[in-house]
Amino acid sequence: MFLLLPLKEEDKRSFFADMQIAFQSGAEKEFGKINEEILPKADIEECIAKKGAAAYQAMYDGKMVGGAIVVIDAKSGHNSLEFLYVKEGCQNKGIGCAIWETLEKLYPDTVVWETVTPYFEKRNLHFYINLCGFHAVEFYNPRHKDPFTPEDMIGGDYFFGFEKRMK
After folding, report:
1. What are 22-59's pLDDT values in tens digits?
2. For the range 92-101, what are the long-range contacts, defined as Cβ-Cβ under 8 Å and sequence gap of 24 or more?
């Protein structure tokens, strides 16, 4: 049975570690072994601390299999999917889609969802466009930088911006 539950304080450590492993693995599949941390714990903590942020853990048969962090602006209805991950070894089982579908149901007043993903994450491009219904609306690159992406991030100059209009 699949559930998407608010992240509990006692589960943050494993949530952070699983998310970091998933992001590290994705980058290393493209670039080979990387000695630096792709997603520092501080970045996740900063995201969770944002105004309107909510973190969720995806559970399947009582085990954490992924999660998501969203930032909700109830006034404007313009919400952001900051992070969505499926735990390493749990991919290709529909968990990412179940997380996304549940998030949409949790926030029915959303007007627009926004997210970004690195250009090299081909699986993410397929996931967001073909499975979740997002549209690529921006391509961040050295001549058109994403103002929210750190300069030193691997692949940090090349991101796709996505939107999904709900109403």
Report:
1. 999 988 988 899 998 989 999 999 999 999 999 999 99
2. 95/2, 95/58, 95/60, 95/65, 95/66, 96/66, 96/127, 96/131, 97/127, 97/131, 97/132, 98/2, 98/4, 98/58, 99/4, 99/56, 99/58, 99/66, 99/67, 99/68, 100/68, 100/131, 100/132
Region for residue 2 given its phi and psi (left: phi exceeds 0; alpha: psi -120 to 50; beta: otherwise): beta
Distance of CA 143 to the CA centre of its chain: 24
Q: What is the largest CA-CA distance in the chain?
A: 46
Q: What separation in angstroms does the CA of 57 have from each of 84, 143, 145, 153? A: 10, 36, 31, 25
